[in-house]
Design brief:
The complex is a heterodimer of chains A (about 280) and B (about 325). Helices cover about 40% and strands about 20% of the residues of chain A. Chain A has about 280 residues and is of the alpha/beta class. Chain A is elongated. Chain B is an alpha/beta fold and about 325 residues long. The longest helix of chain B is centred in the C-terminal third of the chain and has 16 residues. The chains are: A alpha/beta (about 280), B alpha/beta (about 325). Chains A and B meet through strand 8, helix 5, helix 7 and helix 9 of A and strand 1, strand 3 and helix 3 of B. Strand 8 of chain A pairs antiparallel with strand 1 of chain B.
Chain lengths: ~280, ~325
Amino acid sequence: MLYLFSALYQEAAPLIDTLKLKKTDTARGIDSFASEDGSVLLTLTGTGNYNAIAAVSALFAVREAKRDDQVIFYGSAALVRGSAFLYRVREIHDSATGRRAFPDLLLTLPLPDAAAITLPRVMRTRTMVRTFAAHEEIGESVPLLADMESYGVYEAAARHVGPDQITILRFTSDAGEKISGRQMQSVSEQYAPGALEVIREICSVGEDQKEVKLSDEDEALLSRFSGWIHASVSMNTELSRLVNYANLSAISWQPIAEEYLALPCRSRVQGKKILEEFRERILHA
Amino acid sequence: MRERKAFSVIYVEQEAMGRKETEGILSRFPDAEVIVCGDYHEVFNRRRQSFSKQHRAPALILAVHHGELIHQGSPVCQSFREDCFYYASSIMNCPYDCTYCWLKGMYESGDLVVFVNLEDLFQAVEDMLGEHPVYLCVSYDTDLLAMEPVTGYASAWSRFAKEHEDLLIEIRTKGYGHLPSSMAVSERTILAYTLSPARAAEQFEHRAPATNQRIENLLEAQKAGFPVRLCFDPVLVYPSWKEDYATLFQTLDQKINWESIRDISVGTFRLSSDYMQRMRRQDPTSALLAYPYVCTDGFYHLPDTIEHEVETYVTKLCRDRVKEEKIFLWREV
């Protein structure tokens, strides 16, 4: 599942159009757009950290995040240092609290990385420069952006997904001067194709899906065996664990189980003894 | 787009900037993306990290170690009858990827932390040596020799041990390229090689050198004059373990002089229940972790009969080759 977030409709519009997203209901108080197959959901957070936190939290209150989901924020930022570009944010500094957030950088993307400072309000260039001066630990060679939502989005999302599942993409829209909605959308349209390409690549990497599943036949046999030994809850847990181990170790447990099933088992006491024997035979296979 | 390379991203604590070790490590990775953080916990202890994803190509985190630098040796670790058994961590996490490694249960992150204030650790050891001798394991939370090209810490520790008569250190390893020429040889630096059968090493000890390479490494260490310890710990239990360990010992018979081995450590699998739960969640397809261990007093271990069988079998393999007093089980009987 891909969860996209943007602060404003004008920023998100090119993504909504390209991905053919339609308005949908998710949680009260937030505007979301979903793809037809439901695999992409874009939510508008509104501007500012508080709105961002509220929107992300509201969404994940009704949607259970999974290990193979991706959370990507796409939006504008003011450029303080560097060139006008689409950036991946590698470190987020919250100017209000002094805290930092670090999304994982597990992939080498065809984008430059930048540091972002999340500001509590719109600031003009000179004020921003003074604010940034306080963050002397950010090296002079690192592009610097100013935004108003990255930290809130990251922290809210981090309660539900890991740092490898969160990517902040920011395109530079201004240098602290006022910009209209139309201008914002126009700039977003320039960067959206590149952003979408990166988003597709991020989603294609996927998760190390490690799952262990029994076949239907094995499930049926396990169920029969469990019933036959009059298994209690703890016996069932042990039995499942033994079968899991046997499967992973390529030990044929099925003939052993079938062998026992041909005999009577009249009680749980007898069933426990059989389970012990079953275990010994698996472990010494 | 591709996955990043190992150590292509380096986080540096603000306090660690400008230090000699920091500059040395950074100079070895001139193309790395360097990101300054306030405290290494900001990166190393983030919630919900994917150990496996990070560990495929870990980031490096350079930090300054504060607080207690030397810790009492754990009861689940062999002290080799040394009094004053301690351990110290100058690096957290290991470049190798062993399925059963307790570090995967202990650390939330697959990235590696290198503490750049080694001099503080040395000072703490010297303070302790002022009171009593010290037996110190310096490579528990990592493979110090595997990290030698990055840090040079194994050499630094060996030089430190050579200079201090009452200090005995153990550097445990699963092997590396060649023994660094900068290592200072003395009786006070024990190089301890963890050996597993070839099949087990291939299946469970990813990225670590093959068993044959480790044997070559230990021969090189012996030739250089280091006391060498063999560690069959943990003895890995899987369907063909008995035959494979027999084969391993036959290989060792052909290659090494058992008389010249300092001592041998034998241990079976043991892991705290918290660590086990985390590791099983991370890797539900691992047969080794899925083994039906028994939990006693908060630790998972082999069922008693199997544990006894394993200990008896492997110690007999050892006893057929070395004197009894050179063999140490992970727990004193």
